[in-house]
Amino acid sequence: MQRGNTLEQLPTSVDAQRNAVKNAQEVLGQIILGKDKQISLALSCLLARGHLLIEDLPGLGKTMLAQSLAKALGLTFRRIQFTSDLLPADIIGVSIFRQNSGDFEFQPGPVFSQLILADEVNRATPKAQSALLEAMEEHQVSVDGQTRPLPTPFFVVATQNPGDQIGTFPLPESQLDRFLMRVAIGYPNEASERELIVGDDRRLMLDDLEPVAGAETLLELQKSVQKQNVSDPLIDYVQALVRFTRESADIEIGISPRGAQALVAAAKARSFIESHSGVYPDDIQAVFPSVAGHRLKPAGDTRFRSPSELCQHVLDSVAIP
Predict the structure, then answer these.
(1) pLDDT: is 103 or 270 the higher one?
(2) Tell me, what's the pLDDT at 4?
(3) At a CB cut-off of 8 Å and minimum separation 6, what does 22 contact?
């Protein structure tokens, strides 16, 4: 794949591919300090061919993580700032009449890029939010009766503020389910925050960041992730977790079949990043809160109110094979 004046050298062996992922982790860790777990989860989501939702308070680095992912992986990048007056055409594009030719010409919107940052996605109205649904699910958009494919690879990384903040429109369950994983950034530890305060501006560091991979490398990594072995006992474990979420009195809405598929895909990616020979139980447990947290609805009388508490309750209740 041609990038500027250099030719991207695709890693041919699994070890070389894993080294490429480690390099990406190191580069991202220089920008997003003290958040190795969140970086690993974000990379797992992209390697599993999923979309990522980052939810947390303003100012914790949600946008910076999305921008860093695009830069480190060498992907074309567009940012869409979601606001209350955003229209679907602002996302997918619009056809413009050209008087000299007498024809309509389609002007692609920012969604026609390899990595889309949907910034503060829950500040837009449901009509604008829904413009992303077809793109996220089908990797295409329909405009004026024509279906237009999106670039490959294609990812949506959306950020949202907590729903109790002013001016937010909660994402419906159908749209939340389109995100393979949801992660929270959280406050930095004391050492990392001190470095953020007295160290170099992270935005300037991002400008100087050199890609450690490219789109073709990422596609090869995704193929290798899909080949990660999942034994029958591990599939039994996944099904037991899913079944518990559907039968527990503490959970009103459990994990769907698509959620079960997402759990396996994310666990495969995590096992690849951790250089495991196949998927281990700890791979499933590590990704479970991020895959299941936004898919589970707690029952009204349960004592497990937060997504993390509910997910931990499920993991504690199901025996490990």
Answers:
(1) 270
(2) 37
(3) none
Statement: residue 5 has pLDDT above 50? no
pLDDT band for position 164 (50/70/90)? low
Mean pLDDT of 139-146: 83
Q: What is the pTM of this model?
A: 0.88
pLDDT, residue 6, reads: 39
Domains of the chain as residue ranges with CATH: 11-222 (3.40.50.300), 229-317 (1.10.8.80)
Looking at residue 113, its amino acid is S
Nearest to 49 by CA among 126, 125, 156, 144: 156
Q: Within 13 Å, how many C-alpha atoms sit on residue 210's CB side?
A: 6
310 vs 316: CA distance, rounded Å: 10
Residue 299, pLDDT above cutoff 50: yes
Give the SS3 label for residue 273: helix
CA 290, CA 58: separation in Å to the nearest integer? 20
Q: Are 61 and 183 in contact (CB under 8 A)?
A: no
Long-range contacts of 309-313 (CB under 8 A, 24+ apart): 310/250, 310/251, 313/248, 313/250
Average pLDDT value for the chain: 88
In whole angstroms, what is the distance from residue 291 CA to residue 149 CA? 27
More confident residue, 75 or 172: 75
